[in-house]
Amino acid sequence: MTTSTVFFDFMPSKEEEEKGVASGEFPLTPIRAQRVEIRNTPPRLLDLLTPWECRKIMTASDVGHLGALVLGIEHIQRHWGLDWTAINRGTQVAVIIRDVETRTDHNLLLRKTHDDAFLLHNNWLRDFVFRRNLKEGDTIGMYWNRTSSSICFSVLKRAIGMRRE
Question: Which domain of life is it from (predicted)?
Fold first, then answer.
């Protein structure tokens, strides 16, 4: 990492300019200088092959009778473009989940429970568990797609064992 120092000269503000013109002493050169250090730190590179901010191993309740995907605070990303004020009040918020393998979009609801868990529900079983044949032990991944304002979803790893087709 290298550091360099740069001096920036500032031109007068509109108010300062008008005051200088009125007094006949308008400066033709910048009136202030500021020293700024610039650090040449390389940006954190986005891994385009593994962008999954949220990884979760499916539990029995995720693929069973509950009818919802249970997410902990460690799974939810605060920079996801959702209405966090409404979610924190307990309001259900509509989210689009984009399945990247099948290229399909699904409308689900996200809500926060009284014990600070988050539930993705409203057709979770039909649209993901049954359609994608999710089982306990499968690993899924999700990330926020800023372009489409949706959560992208993928099955990252299948559990070992018998699968029904």
Answer: Eukaryota
